[in-house]
Amino acid sequence: MLLEELKGIAEKEKAGRKQICVRCCMSAGCMSSQSAEIKQVLEKAVADRQLGDRVEVRRVGCMGLCGQGPLVSIEPEGLLYERVTPENAATIVETLAGGTTSAQRGDLTQPFFARQVAVVSRNGGRIDPERIEDYIEAGGYGALHHVLHELQPADVVVAITQSGLRGRGGGGYPTGLKWATVAKSKGERKYVICNGDEGDPGAFMDRSVLESDPHSVIEGMAIAGYAVGANMGYLYVRAEYPLAISRLQIAIRQARQRGLLGDALFESTFNFNVEIRIGAGAFVCGEETALMASIEGRRGQPRPRPPFPAESGLWGFPTLINNVETFANIVPIIIRGAEWYAGLGTEKSKGTKVFALTGKIKNNGLIEVPMGITIREIVEDLGGGAPDGAKIKAVQTGGPSGGCIPAHLFDTPVDYDSLMKVGSIMGSGGMVVMDDTTNMVDVARFYMQFCMEESCGKCIPCRAGTVQMYQLLNKILERQATIKDLEQLEELCDLVRNTSLCGLGQTAPNPVTSTLRYFRNEYLALLQPETGGYGVDAKQPADAKVAL
Amino acid sequence: MGHQDGTALGWKGKEGLPSGGPSTHEINLADLSKGWSKQGGQVKVVKPPLPSPDKRWKIIDAKMRKMGYQPHALIETLHAVQESFGYLDEVALRWVAKSLRVPPSKVYGVSTFYNFFTLKPQGAHTCVVCLGTACYVKSASKILEAIEVFTKIKPGETTPDRQLSLLTVRCIGACGIAPAVVYDGNVSGRVTPEQATEKLKGYFSHAS
Ligand SMILES: Cc1cc2nc3c(=O)[nH]c(=O)nc-3n(C[C@H](O)[C@H](O)[C@H](O)COP(=O)(O)O)c2cc1C
Ligand code: FES
């Protein structure tokens, strides 16, 4: 492949475009409500109406507003239709010939869309994820060419460092620093791994990126490979995401056919290949050392670090492991520059973050917002508040490793450090909204049960501690517990946090400690009154000052 | 789904399995070394024969061949077995162990570690209820409860007539349309307990 060929493909695509494009979302959410049939109906309607010379129907990836799917949009008109059905889909095409439609109109100018900044999701809802030509037309693989021909590997590392990008898998480790470490490590071979395990139950950012724009992740991995000196990449994707896996398979096949994966990319001396490895339903496999054990065909159990994967990773070779969203940020940084990226977000948290906004909220779906936006803005402006006027009580971020942020702290800006300060974490991007019908002790038990079931059993504090904490939470919820049990629970939280081997155990107490911090009264109200319960009214919010 | 050929079933005495197949062979440690023979200091690999003429074994063998019969092909191979047969039985586990030269204990260890692998044959239909956070907040437990009452089975079990297996999962990434249920691989969103039982009724209607 040469640059000219790449440009040729893009031009040919542009020339083939019709005046009007009817985009039909074919991501997992909309697919589950018949969007494949809807696309067929749309295509047939275009043919029946003989509009084929100016209208095309295109399969696209996620448009974000999954809660209102299936979604269909019309460009360049900028019209959005929600909850489309195979029955009313044809009438949407009628509108292009002067007719009317009964399909429900959506609003592309509402804050849910208008307040987003699309970096990672730049191609979502725009390109056909199963056609590499679409990606190339959108500028795809241009960044890889630029890097291979204009930059030294060290320059790439510098650019990523200057962008200030931090890992989107939850930890927030500076990506440039990680790349520099792997680049410096000596090894006969090196590997790049993309972590697509997305274990947080209640989050689907990575699924959406893989389904909507698989090539941007592959291109990001190839650039990383060049920067650190690796020729082989693995994409580890969880088995629960069959559509993401099949789109990746298609993308890899097409990239190989076009010579964009393989040997001597863009006639340089750089070779790069990727393979998919499918997870098998173990949350702990999202942890990097467990993930590598899983790729090696073993039980996914973590091991102590150091040595860090950057020094000794897959099969003992230096390995770069980054999250899906981290890789999806690479191409825009290369194309638009580190400075541009560093201009987005806050001082210590650069760029944007994709969140899966779900739970008791009007607009369910995926949003990409600049770091530093407040939780209130996300919940009230983008999310549209609670449906049917319920009162929002808290937002949970960070999944089983995170915490609940109460409504009175909704002015907290969303960045790594501020979220940490209020007792939660950025996490991978799950944001579950809870209203006053949700019992916070039950929420804590829900997460503890999850951690208990997912504990791999290798270290005792996590294996036994999560069971004990779960039982204590059960006892509290069954109104059998006393203040002593609560004290024991808090002690156990401390113990498990400080003595577990990996992040799973170290963070498993977080949902308990954060709900205890802000909703202690809900716990107290469930305790046995005669033995120290305070008979406190659970509805009274805990005094924030005392709690903090 | 499942084995057409009852003789391929290695599990004896497990619920709902056809009886009369060949008896389960005992773990024979001598078996283990059969795949290996030393010839002049070089380890020569003798590939074990396919367990039966069933074509599906060939597909699985092709998968292992593609990965060079390396031990790290284990998980991918188990995926292929489960995709072909619906579950992992002892014959398959032993054969994979020999082909990849991995001790059976490790193969068993891996297949029981990961939630996705099942050692039990599944029913004709599967119903997977999501119990991830977004679905939990939207009362997924009520759906599960209704299904449990209707089918009289618990998650991980199969109805006695082998029509339906009930499973749970922690998030399938359809949180935007929570609560979600997967019927035979097809995701359904915004499910109500009534809808779920209604849907399952269809699976039992032709079973007398
Ligand atoms: C229990 C546990 C689960 C994790 N799950 C994931 C996951 O699902 N996806 C992910 O990208 N990182 C996950 N991580 C973080 C990874 O270990 C690792 O830090 C990350 O993939 C690094 O990529 P990044 O620097 O781009 O964030 C998990 C960590 C722990 C301790
Ligand atoms: S929590 Fe059920 S699909 Fe994500």
Task: Describe the protein in words.
- The complex is a heterodimer of chains A (548) and B (208).
- Chain A contains 24 helices and 14 strands.
- The termini of chain A are far apart.
- Chain A is globular and about 75 Å long.
- Residues 539-548 of chain A have low confidence and may be disordered.
- In chain A, a hairpin with a 3-residue loop joins strand 3 and strand 4 (79-82).
- Chain A has 548 residues and is an alpha/beta fold.
- In chain A, helix 21 (483-499) packs antiparallel against helix 23.
- Chain A folds into four domains: 17-108, Glutaredoxin (3-Layer(aba) Sandwich), CATH 3.40.30.10; 140-342, 3-Layer(aba) Sandwich (Rossmann fold); 352-433, Ubiquitin-like (UB roll), CATH 3.10.20; 440-531, de novo design (two linked rop proteins) (Up-down Bundle).
- With 208 residues, chain B is α+β, with helices and mostly antiparallel strands.
- Chain B folds into two domains: 6-113, no CATH class; 125-207, Glutaredoxin, CATH 3.40.30.
- Chain B is built from eight helices and six strands, in the order H-E-E-H-H-H-H-E-H-H-E-E-E-H.
- Chain B has helices at residues 29-34, 55-66, 74-85, 90-100, 104-113, 133-137, 140-151, 193-204, and strands spanning 36-39, 42-45, 125-130, 164-169, 181-183, 186-188.
- In chain B, the strands form two sheets. A four-stranded mixed sheet of chain B has the order 4-3-5-6, with helices on one face. A two-stranded antiparallel ribbon of chain B has the order 1-2.
- In chain B, a hairpin with a 2-residue loop joins strand 1 (36-39) and strand 2.
- The longest helix of chain B is centred in the N-terminal third of the chain and has 12 residues, at 55-66.
- Chain B is elongated.
- The two termini of chain B are 20 Å apart.
- Residues 1-41 of chain B have low confidence and may be disordered.
- The chains are: A alpha/beta (548), B alpha+beta (208).
- At the A-B interface, helix 2, strand 10, strand 14 and helix 19 of A face helix 3, helix 5, helix 6 and strand 6 of B.
- The site of flavin mononucleotide has 22 residues of chain A, from strand 9 and helix 22.
- Residues 167-171, 173, 195, 197-199, 284, 286-288, 321-323, 326, 428, 502-504 of chain A line the site of flavin mononucleotide.
